[in-house]
Amino acid sequence: MSTLFRSSLLLSLCSLMILPLAQARTLKDIKKEGVLHVNSLELPPFSYKTTDGYTGFETELITMLANDLGLKTDFSPMLLDTIANDLKEGRVDAAIGGLEITSTRENQVGFTRPFLCAGMSVVSRDPAIQTRFDLENKTVGVLSGSTIQSFVQKLPFPKKAVVFATVNDLIYAIATGKVDATLSYKVSGPIMMKLYPKAGFLYGPVQWSIPIGAMLSDGDNSLRLALNGALAKSMQDGRYAQLSTKYFGENLRCKA
User: Fold this and answer.
1) Secondary structure string (H, E, C) spanning 144-201
2) What is the pLDDT of residue 16?
3) What's the gap between Cα 19 and its chain centre?
4) Strand (E) positions, 70-109?
5) Are 149 and 109 in contact (CB under 8 A)?
6) E strand or H helix at 141, and its extent?
7) Is the peptide bond before 45 cis (omega within 30 degrees of 0)?
8) Which residues form the signal peptide (predicted)?
9) Scanning 12, 21, 101, 134, which has its CA 20 to 30 A from the CA of 117?
10) What three-state secondary structure class fits 67?
């Protein structure tokens, strides 16, 4: 190996070592472009895609908050398995779609203050399956990377968890009887039955309530603080209550 070649190779390696690692954008960076890039997990009525684009409670809410900050929004589909890295490396600024705020997730990513608190229910086509205790010896569909996947796996009785990559795949599996049940938000019931009237979905009683918020990078806090401020303003001036009532028929703001 020639001295010139070794020197060139060493220089190339050194250049790679000092290249800055991709990282989440700060609010200042985002404002330079003027666009907040948001990943959306398709979960009606929180966020879902129609022929006219993305819609839903969280879609409208984060658009309203972004507008208050002088920003536009750009939505794209999300996979739970990759979202933490996508946020950390700045490929996306925020993520929405019924994302539960849990201590486990907060060890990996950041969150806004809760957008709402919603009750979790068992969903099935079998009227005998009403609560989590009815899942014994049943086949339960779960979304890959979701908190429900972890919850079902920890249930202290025999059951079979079947993992799906997308919400649409999970919905199809329940509708066609490939799985016996899943767990989802009770407030999703009316719109899910409207979107899939022949599926025969039955929602059991609420098993527990959980806070939901926008997922962010756990690095720079400037975006989180700005979104939290805009959210607080929308709760004070009545816009939040109006939007929540539009989608859920009530104000689902978390109680203090």
Assistant:
1) CCCHHHHHHHHCCCCCEEEEECCHHHHHHHHHCCCCCEEEEEHHHHHHHHHHCCCCCC
2) 43
3) 31
4) 72-77, 94-96
5) no
6) strand 139-143
7) yes
8) 1-24
9) 134
10) helix
List, in order, residues 6 or more apart from 86 with CB less than 8 Å away: 39, 78, 92, 95
Cα 9 to chain centroid distance, Å, stands at: 44
Helix (H, G, I), strand (E, B) or coil at 37: strand
164 contacts 170 by C-beta, under 8 angstroms: yes
pTM here is: 0.86
Least Cα distance to 135 among 204, 216, 73, 68 occurs for 204
Domains, the chain: 23-115+213-248 (3.40.190.10), 118-210 (3.40.190.10)
**Tally of residues, the chain:** 256
CA distance 128 to 123: 11
Q: Which residue type occupies 102? A: T
Summarised one tens digit per residue, pLDDT across range 25-50 is 999 999 999 999 999 999 999 999 99
Structure-token match 């527990």, residue found: 208
Q: Which residues pair with 43 in a beta bridge?
A: 47
